[in-house]
Amino acid sequence: MTCDEAEVLLHALIDGELDAGHTRDVESHVAGCPRCAAALRDYREMSRMVAETGARYTAPVALRQRIEAALPQARAVPNRRAVLRGFAMGSAVSALAATGLVAIVLRNDDVDRIQSEVVSAHLRSLQAGHLTDVVSTDQHTVKPWFNGKLDVSPPVVDLTAQGFTLIGGRLDYVDARAIGAVVYRRRQHIINLFVAQTANTERRAARIDTVQGFNIRHWSDRGLNYWAVSDLAKDELSDFGEKFESAMQSPH
Amino acid sequence: MPSKASDDDPEKARRFREAALPYLDDAYTLARYLLRDATDAEDAVQECYLRAFRHFDSYRGPAMKPWLFAILRNVCRAEYARRATAPTSPIEDVPESAEQAPLWLEAQETPEGQIIRAKDSHTIRRLIATLAEPFREAFVLREIQNLSYREIADVAAVPVGTVMSRLARARAMLRSAWLAEQEQRK
Fold first, then answer.
1. Cβ–Cβ of B107/A7 closer than 8 Å?
2. Is pLDDT of B44 > 60?
3. Residue A194: other Cβ atoms inside 10 A
4. Are strands A189-197 and A204-211 parallel, antiparallel or unpaired?
5. Do A17 and B149 touch (CB under 8 A)?
6. CB contact A61 to B (< 8 Å)
7. Among A43-57, A121-135, A224-238, B95-109, which range has the highest average pLDDT?
8. Residue B159 neighbours by CB under 8 Å, 6+ apart
9. Which residues in chain B are closer than 8 Å to A73, comparing Cβ atoms?
């Protein structure tokens, strides 16, 4: 092998791109050629230097932020794993961004989870024999029945005059806690009104969501969380909630 | 069902982030060496990522890094073209004949002596930056980015043989520059 040939193949040797046959040829040439041997030694030293002394650059944080901002945001997928993947990216920026997301995601998750539990409880109640533990159209029978069974006794309001018939009460479980359910009927539609204690005594205005085809009207008042669940149309369920809330305002 | 694979698809964006953002430093490093300007490099990398995201649906792999680099290289080429039309910053270009020059000429011009390890990254970066563009590109893709000859050939859109001769010349020139630098410091 001539120096001319070896000059190019030296590099393939350094880069591990040479087959076994050529590797032997180049190595035997280098063994007998001080000039090529010196070149090989220097090239290897250069490779080590470049690898070890930090010839790389680190992308500025602002660049990473600009690229992140230009991509569609993942906020539409409230998914804990997506957030963890954000952490896996390893940069301080994505970690910060992900931390901000966690709060939002967990809060949404909580709301979603409780709503779907409320709907599950509603569905369970519709099975034969599950709707009521105490059957009574009399609020003065239903309300005392809850006493001692729950931390908080759910208010029971008679709305018969408003078109919603009280048919009883039931103990249920939502969010791994015992919860009171007051059951009303409008025509053939059942309304489960779930009532749970909350640390927050602030009044929170009602919002209506649809989960698995059921409407949920959720509001908070005087330390109690309310979820009214039914297959009633949204406007009728709103009507129920408003009648209930205004009955609660007036002394019975 | 309408397809959700639009540019607004958060799932696509998530997959893209996961696949491409780990190479941000690599892309920025390549852009710095190709453009030799920090601001231009940032702009090029941002443009590269946006283009890559738009074409992410057609990405079939296998390696993300060479795919990104091929896009980045095109962006940098466009930047060269822009600079070429700007009279204030003339583009340095390598005549075709430069690549055909016999390699042994470089070796003959090489000063005697052994290269000594530089203590700072600044010297290395500066010496790499003195290489003419095709050689600098081949050298950076191989020595800093650890791409294979085949991958370099794909990124630079040249045959593997050309990659080998460019790399040989890049290293020979760098070695000469290095040894000359050492001579000066004596």
1. yes
2. yes
3. 25
4. unpaired
5. yes
6. no
7. A224-238
8. B153
9. 10, 13
Strands A134-135 and A189-197: unpaired
Q: How far is A233 from chain B (nearest CA, A)?
A: 27
Amino acid at position A138, single letter: D
Q: How many CB atoms sit inside 10 A of residue A252's CB?
A: 8
Whether the CB of A34 is below 8 Å from some CB of chain B: the reply is no
State the alpha helices, DSSP H only, in B36-63: 38-54
Q: Does residue A12 belong to the interface with chain B, where contact is any CB pair within 8 Å?
A: yes
| 104-163 of B, contacting A, C-beta below 8 A | 104, 107, 110, 114-115, 117-121, 124-125, 128, 142-144, 148-149
Contacts of A64 in chain B (CB under 8 A): 21, 24
Question: How many CB atoms are closer than 10 A to CB B76?
Answer: 24
What is the least distance, in Å, from the CA of A162 to any CA of chain B?
43
Which amino acid does the sequence have at A158? D
Specify the pTM.
0.54
DSSP assignment of chain A equals --HHHHHHHHHHHHTT---HHHHHHHHHHHHT-HHHHHHHHHHHHHHHHHHHTT------HHHHHHHHHHSPPGGG---HHHHHHHHHT--HHHHHHHHHHHHHHHHHHHHHHHHHHHHHHHHHHHSTT-S-SEE-S-HHHHHHHHTTTSSSPPP---BGGGTBEEEEEEEEEETTEEEEEEEEEETTEEEEEEEEE-S--S-EEEEEEEETTEEEEEEEETTEEEEEEESS-HHHHHHHHHHHHHHHHS--
Digit-coded pLDDT (tens) for B61-103: 778 999 999 999 999 988 877 877 765 444 444 444 444 444 4
**What is the pLDDT at residue A104?**
36
What ipTM, to 2 d.p.? Answer: 0.80
Q: Do B149 and A70 touch (CB under 8 A)?
A: no
